[in-house]
Design a protein that fits this description.
The protein is mainly alpha-helical. Helix content is 85%, strand content 0%. Belongs to the ABC-3 integral membrane protein family.
Length: 270
């Protein structure tokens, strides 16, 4: 398997993206932004379709559209946006724009499936360097702003009382989500981006109460899911994204079962 360059590239790119998603996902879950991650993935689909229509680098189109979407969400106000029914309109509009650009550009069906479901085995060295740059950027920014972000994500009232720049943190985090979404589309596609960015983190909450522990477990689950997806996809010729999501779902349900058993034991002991 590893004698092929495309599999080597896939493992390198997949591991980097999984690490990034595992870390940022903990804060996405804590800030209740799962649905916004889903929205950004649809916006990313429109951006990638526009890139194909305009004949530019797909990552550039993804970044332009997702960053614009993140800024728009930030201007609306994250809390209001989560409650606003306009999220359905934005999701529908983004999907419609993606279909329109694909139609105008006379894009082949294979490319459409790649946008929707990903194609990690089609990644080359240029893509890897792009992924490295964005992954390092996202992780470095998260590390630098870790204290503020942790405080605001897990204790919003306390962060506001302490005078932290809440709006600045919210918009900054949305921009990081946009960057993460842009590169993750290449692995699992626009339809399943939010799964890799949220399910490992959601599962990690069942295994530990420590924030740093959640980050480690979430990252581990995300990385293992990508490795499992690549190996299973290689030997079965089935979609890699399915195996990635399947592994994450199993991790989540096992974590839920583990949590319930632990709580029952605690009740019996007490």
């Amino acid at each position: 398997m590893f004698q092929y360059d495309f599999m080597q590239h896939a493992f390198i790119a997949g591991t980097l993206i999984a690490m990034m998603c595992g870390v940022i996902g903990v804060f996405i879950i804590a800030r209740s932004l799962s649905f916004i991650a889903h929205t950004l993935s649809h916006i990313g689909f429109a951006g990638a379709a526009f890139s194909a229509y305009a004949g530019i680098d797909p990552l550039l189109g993804l970044l332009l559209f997702t960053i614009a979407g993140a800024v728009g969400v930030g201007q609306l106000g994250v809390r209001m946006y989560r409650r606003d029914a306009s999220i359905s309109v934005i999701l529908s509009l983004a999907l419609g724009l993606g279909i329109l650009f694909l139609s105008l550009g006379n894009i082949q069906g294979n490319y459409s499936r790649t946008l929707l479901f990903g194609s990690v085995v089609g990644i080359d060295m240029q893509d890897i360097w792009q992924i490295v740059l964005i992954t390092v950027f996202v992780l470095v920014v998260l590390a630098v702003g870790y204290r503020w972000l942790k405080f605001d994500s897990f204790d919003q009232v306390g962060a506001q009382s302490a005078g932290l720049p809440i709006r600045f943190i919210s918009i900054g985090f949305l921009l990081l989500m946009a960057a993460a979404t842009s590169v993750t589309v290449q692995i699992v596609g626009a339809l399943l981006v939010f799964a890799l960015m949220t399910v490992p983190a959601a599962a990690a909450r069942f295994y530990t109460q420590s924030i740093f522990g959640m980050i480690l477990i979430s990252t581990l689950i995300a990385v293992l899911s990508v490795w499992f997806g690549l190996i299973a996809g290689y030997y079965t010729n089935a979609p890699i994204s399915f195996f990635i999501v399947f592994f994450n779902a199993i991790s989540y349900f096992f974590g839920m079962f583990f949590h319930r058993v632990r709580e029952r034991r605690r009740i019996l002991v007490s």
